[in-house]
Amino acid sequence: MDAVEKVYRFYESWRGEKFVYGKSVSGKPLVGFFVGKHTYPVLLLQYAIHAREWITSLLALEHIKRGVSQGGAYILPLTNPDGALLSLCDPARTLWKANANGVDLNVNFPALWGTGVSNTFAPSSQNYVGARPLSEPETRALVRFTGKVRPSATVSYHTKGREIYWEFFQQGAALERDKRLASALADETGYTAKTIVGSAGGYKDWCIRALRIPAFTIEAGSDAFAHPIGEGALPALVRENIGVPERLGKELLPWKTK
After folding, report:
1. Where would you tag: which of 8, 26, 133, 242 has the fewest CB atoms within 10 A of its CB?
2. Coil, strand, or helix at residue 46?
3. Residues 41, 12: contact at Cβ < 8 Å?
4. What is the pLDDT of residues 111-133, one digit of tens each?
5. How far apart, in whole angstroms, are the C-alpha atoms of residue 43 and residue 35?
6. In the chain, which stretches have pLDDT less than 70?
7. What pTM, to 2 d.p., does this model score?
8. Among residues 121, 133, 124, 123, which one has the least CA distance to residue 201?
């Protein structure tokens, strides 16, 4: 049973709060879960927006089972199911990152769209920005859902490198807040919080720019692993990241009225 099937079977068996928030290019349901309480802070965590990073969808299931004690969390374990299946099932496309249309979903958001240094402008296994911002059903669904639930902060799980990205041109108090939160997540995971240049159009970027909330990209797993990271690495990813939702929720508490 591959990771995509595991996610859908988990969804079918889960007795807690769950929902479908959209469909993929091929019509596969984009499934989500809610754990905790509908009180501040409410997080949104999304996983496997890059196809070859499907291992993060299994980390999501561990986060769902662990839950949170402070506030609540929406958990979207498989943002790109079509692409994940291509990576898992087609030997020629194990390193595929894009969706079924050849669009890299994490450069398809309206946040300085098309200005990233690695962006390309034709369908490809990676880096293609799409015909326009939000050209893809997966990114439109994620933006609609995020706008509907208005989370206190978001986390996007990727692989690999053991790094946390947190900055996208925010200033003043927001910059200081997000830097402190990133430092706390670095302490929790043992990863390095850092800024990057030349990247644009990502979900994190859109959350910071459009919603003005803290948003983080976590590159889980050591660079010693090769893409795509297999299930044998899952225990290490869980060990390093299982406490992230709980820690972020607690760290957000002092910022409620700021």
Report:
1. 26
2. strand
3. no
4. 999 999 999 999 999 999 999 99
5. 10
6. 257-258
7. 0.98
8. 133
